[in-house]
Amino acid sequence: NAGVTQTPKFRVLKTGQSMTLLCAQDMNHEYMYWYRQDPGMGLRLIHYSVGEGTTAKGEVPDGYNVSRLKKQNFLLGLESAAPSQTSVYFCASSRGLAGPAGPQYFGPGTRLTVT
Amino acid sequence: AQKITQTQPGMFVQEKEAVTLDCTYDTSDPSYGLFWYKQPSSGEMIFLIYQGSYDQQNATEGRYSLNFQKARKSANLVISASQLGDSAMYFCAMRMDSSYKLIFGSGTRLLVRP
User: Fold this and answer.
1) Helix (H, G, I), strand (E, B) or coil at A85
2) CB of B95 within 8 Å of any CB in chain A?
3) What pLDDT was estimated at residue A106?
4) Best mutation site among A27, A60, A74, A97 for testing chain B: the one with the most B CBs within 10 Å?
């Protein structure tokens, strides 16, 4: 049971380059999320999705785009990377709002450095 | 406003002893879940334990237990028989049953001494 997986695990970009981070979950979860975590700080929500074909902005969406074409996948794109986007990126998934709030399950993270 | 407070930035515990990590929360919503996550130095976020606001009994998962005191709005994590591998950052979090949003505390760094 893989849970939540992320690719790649590490990446170095130059300013202005673009890239896509891929998240996949095998738990049939409705909700998926992208967070970033900066040194010494907690997680901040970038974008989230409540179902296939839907996305919404979180706390820090600027400079990022997302897509959820399939229920099990959630993609995070950086169109023109900036040094301020150097961070560790986590994907997470959870079941929907029917019933008690369940946990979010996190992927292993992607460490991105923008030079 | 909904908020999670972890007042212990760092803690030490001797190996094999028990330790309590404090967490208080603030919400006026009656339906919510409380969670603890572990983040070791390798970086991943590991879900440890969950407590629903309507659960009558405290949650337990192996060596982890959640001391849920609803009237005091506290959800402390108790780790019994600490192991060296328990050294990590621990985050308390809350989510309303009606919301997608997971609210995190600032975390407590636990160091287990041999």
Assistant:
1) helix
2) yes
3) 96
4) A97
d(CA B76, CA B67): 5
Q: For residues B97 and B22, what is the distance between their CA atoms, to the nearest angstrom?
A: 23
- The shortest C-alpha distance from A40 to chain B (Å) reads 9
> Left, alpha or beta for B22 (phi > 0: left; psi -120 to 50: alpha)?
beta
Q: Which of A106, A110, A111, A112 to mutate to test the interface with B (most CBs of B within 10 A)?
A: A106
Q: At which residue do the structure tokens 């996948």 appear? A: A73
Residue appearing with tokens 């982890």 = B64
B102: CB partners within 8 A, 6+ apart: A33, A45, A92, A104, B35, B93, B94, B95
Please give, rounded to a whole number of angstroms, the shortest distance from the CA of B52 to a CA of chain A. 7
Q: Nearest to residue A59, comparing CAs of A71, A42, A73?
A: A42
A98 Cβ neighbours under 8 A, 6+ residues apart: none
Q: How confident is the model over A67-101, as pLDDT tens digits?
A: 999 999 999 999 999 999 999 999 999 987 766 76
